[in-house]
Every structure is written in C-alpha cells, then in structure tokens.
Amino acid sequence: MKRILVIAALALAAGLGRPAPAAADLTFFLGMSPTPELRGTRGFAAGINMLVIGFEFDYSHTSEDTAGGAPSLRTGMLNGIIMTPTKTQLYLTAGGGFYREVLADDGKNGFGTNIGGGAKIPLLGPVNLRVDYRIYNLRGSARHKTPQRFYAGINFRF
Fold first, then answer.
1. Which residue, 66, 67, 148, 155, could crosslink 130 as a Cys pair with Cβ 3.0–4.6 Å?
2. pLDDT for 32-51, tens place per residue?
3. What pTM value is reported for the model?
4. What is the torsional sign of CA 85, 134, 100, 66?
C-alpha cells in the first residue's frame, strides 16, 4: 500500500510539475575594439536560454585601420552562457570558433576562444538593452592574439 501511495504521489508531481520553458533571443549590436587601435565593430548573436544555462552563436566584424596597423577581424563563435534567473540578467560566457583577420589584403584564418560577460536589461516587453565585454584568444598566426570587444545592442526575446 505504501508503495502505491509513493508511485501515485510521484505520478501526480510529474503531471503537475512543468519544466521552465526555453526562450530564444536575437541581438544586434554596435561596439568597439580597443586592441590594437580603437575601431568600430558590429554583429549579431542568436541564442537559446533555459533557466540559468544557455547557448548562442555570435558573429562580429571589426573594421580595419591600415594606417594604425590594425587588421579587420571577423569571428564566428559558439558560446555557453551561465546567467542569473532574474529580470535583469547578468551572465558569463565562454566559447570558441573561427576567425579571419585581414590587413592590406593579407588574410589569416584560425581557431579562437573567447570569455566575457554582460547584462540583459529589460526595456519594454520582449526588448532588452544588452551590454557585453569579451576577450578573445586567437590561435595560429594572428597578428594580435588577444583582442577585446565592448558592445551595446538591442536584444529581442521570443
């Protein structure tokens, strides 16, 4: 009898309990990279978030400054995210992917990693302000092995 009650209680809990829904989001951003010279950067990120864990793909393009010897940098990174389950979400992120660095028609490709963090701050309904900071570690023959990126963007949840 005790066993039947335990099974019934577990079945009732499983039927009534629901996992937290996953949410997707899309961010369009503008920012700057101060390494090795101050240059503009732009891009987008698309991700899926569970309660405190998420994943995203991030693409960015930093412009070239030939006079300052700063190459353009394109990155495509797949990142894992750990975030607070609060209205304003603070997060830490790390991941890896590919990069392409070009200075005066001399291009270099390779694999890189990144680590960073930021916040998604609610604005209106499903729209957030997202601010982010990343440090990259570019492997291979990159001219600048540890570029940084700061950005602000509009984040849409759906």
1. 155
2. 999 889 999 999 999 999 98
3. 0.84
4. positive
